[in-house]
């Protein structure tokens, strides 16, 4: 029995060279990719690790396993762990948890809370959807786009962004070289196809989508279109998230106009932003904006992330302290919030950095 379950492990070691398909192309940016993965996407990284050994696999560990080895490993795992009686244990689709996390953990984003929940819930509850779900997140850096992507992954998958059914692509790090676009196209198609074949429901996240090379997204455009299948593979249960700073100026202008007119921030509706956001995205530069996703109207929802106000920054600081198991008070939260940059500066209205740098900021206020 020991030999039976040890065989897959030995097979994994022998297949180690196949784990990092994209990294063989993008090794120049490996260090920076790992820094961002560890600090923004909260990957499994060792503290104070300065080398580039911690990498995010773009091919799944089990891709190189013979099916009989996978079955043996599954049987052994179920003998010592927990397995589902039916369905796929990797997929949880906790819509109640998604609603709670969006409501309690995401601050100052009533539009994103509403649109994301309705879109995900509607898609999950409709197994006969005629196309994959494609969402495009827009707004300033630090307003919560990455955070919401993690919330989605955490509630739809048992292992969150670390799940073998979730794949993260960071444009300038996975696809850094324009001269290799044709190579990236083939690798991207293969990576998505392989993952869809292994998982009944998949999540693909493209961070910094505005930096994608022209033509790259068009290579996988058929996977997001209204097709029963592409080369015999159905992609209808896949979810695609594109995160970008495109449209940030438009979103900020609308928020500022509401503030100047004395209207409540919560009165901003999708009707005030969606048309303008779609138009700015189409007119902007870059491979994502110029892709056939836009001309083919394949983006299901353009999700705006509003600039955060002073009160929202305080809530982010409160959460950061709580995450460290630390108690705090209003005076300390005010000090952290005041240390951020705001636009317009004289009115201290919108945080220019959002909540992204809050965890680093509070280090200055710790005893």
UniProtKB/TrEMBL annotation:
Which Gene Ontology terms of cellular component type are present? endoplasmic reticulum lumen; nuclear envelope
Record keywords, A-Z: Signal
Q: Name one GO molecular function term.
A: ATP hydrolysis activity
**Amino-acid biosynthesis is among the record's keywords:** no
In which domain of life is the source organism classified? Answer: Eukaryota
Gene3D superfamilies associated with the record: P-loop containing nucleotide triphosphate hydrolases (3.40.50.300)
Instruction: Domain (Torsin-1A C-terminal): give its ranges.
Output: 308-365
**Signal sequence segment:** 1-17
Similarity comment: Belongs to the ClpA/ClpB family. Torsin subfamily.
Tell me what this protein is called: Torsin-1A C-terminal domain-containing protein
Native organism: Etheostoma spectabile
Instruction: Give the lineage.
Output: Eukaryota, Metazoa, Chordata, Craniata, Vertebrata
